[in-house]
UniProtKB/TrEMBL annotation:
Amino acids binding Zn(2+) 1: 85, 177, 206
Root EC class: lyase
Co-factor note (free text): Binds 2 Zn(2+) ions per subunit. One is catalytic and the other provides a structural contribution.
InterPro entries documented for this protein: Aldolase_TIM, Class_II_FBP_aldolase, FBA_II, Fruc_bis_ald_class-2
Binding-site list for Zn(2+) 2: 105, 135
GO biological process: fructose 1,6-bisphosphate metabolic process; glycolytic process
The protein's name: Fructose-1,6-bisphosphate aldolase, class II
Cofactor(s) named in the record: Zn(2+)
Active-site residues, as the UniProt record annotates them: 84
UniProt KW keywords: Lyase, Metal-binding, Zinc
Length: 288
């Protein structure tokens, strides 16, 4: 059975590590994440943005894919299926479709509307035992065509959002989705520490791709308990697949069979997962 993300994040928050959130895109992705986390006995959050849900055929397809793979692969570690950057309508649809965790991202709305809609989503989700993430202050870069300049969230706004009954909070601290530009300033630890003192709950770090290990470790010390990774798995998958094709392996025997063609990319995703579980300190968390 899939679980919500509250218990695993509270445990991470108390014990000073972060749970990895990996975005999924398809069957191979989901399988790679589940198998790697089972192998490392690590709790994990599998997430899909609204765009990825649409790509895979809808919310129910995604919820059922993760649930059914989890059961048929005999996965024993805690796994949550989470909506990433959901709209109000998307979050409501996922609550009905069998997701165990949702993010309502009202960060582009006026603050009062964000707070009001977050409270509504919390009520609907908690009635079904589903955990809720909410966001104030945009997170830089591009996510499904939504862009915002890398912001530093306002501490007072974070405090207001945290009091809406949410389980964990996403707040901009200089992080950016996608590959970090060469002139990136790094995470703003002063702001993170102020937010952390104000909200007293697990903080979510979006844009986990490419953040150097020392900054990851410091962020975890300051209350980050969930780190989102998407682009890094995509890059690893694309690189391994390209190498396979450039080496002409799809033209050898039945090398064109998707089970062979997609295997190097799938294994490359697993390598990223292993590396992140180690870096985030969550490896072995299922038994901790
Ligand atoms: P990256 O694509 O930068 O890893 O960010 C992922 C993310 O934050 C998903 O919400």
């Amino acid at each position: 059975m899939l679980v919500n993300a509250k218990e695993m994040l509270d445990k991470a928050y108390e014990n000073g590590y972060a749970i990895a959130h990996f975005n999924t895109n398809n069957l191979e992705w989901t399988r790679a994440i589940l198998e790697a986390c089972e192998q490392k006995q690590t709790a994990v959050i599998i997430a899909a943005s609204e765009g990825a849900n649409k790509y895979m055929g809808g919310y129910k397809v995604v919820a059922d894919l993760v649930k059914n793979l989890h059961d048929s692969l005999d996965i024993t570690v805690p796994v949550a299926i989470h909506l990433d950057h959901g709209t109000y309508e998307g979050a409501k649809a996922c609550i009905e479709a069998g997701f165990t965790s949702v993010m309502f991202d009202g960060s582009s709305l006026p603050l009062e509307e964000n707070l009001e809609k977050t409270r509504e989503i919390v009520e609907l989700a908690h009635a079904k035992g589903i955990s809720v993430e909410a966001e104030v202050g945009g997170i830089g870069g591009e996510e499904d065509g939504v862009t915002s300049a890398g912001e530093l969230a306002d501490v007072d706004e974070c405090k207001k959002l945290a009091s809406c009954g949410i389980d964990f909070i996403a707040a901009g601290i200089g992080n950016i989705h996608g590959v970090y530009p060469a002139d990136w300033q790094g995470l703003n630890f002063d702001r993170l520490s102020e937010i952390s003192d104000a909200v007293n709950m697990p903080i979510v770090l979006h844009g986990g791709t490419g953040i150097p290990e020392d900054q990851i470790k410091k962020a975890i010390e300051l209350g980050v308990s969930k780190i989102n990774v998407n682009t890094e798995c995509q890059l690893a998958f694309a690189k391994a697949t390209r190498e396979y094709i450039e080496a002409g392996k799809d033209k050898e025997g039945k090398g064109f069979d998707p089970r062979k063609l997609l295997a190097p990319g799938t294994n490359a995703i697993k390598e990223v997962v292993y590396q992140k579980l180690d870096m985030f300190g969550s490896e072995g968390s299922a038994n901790k």
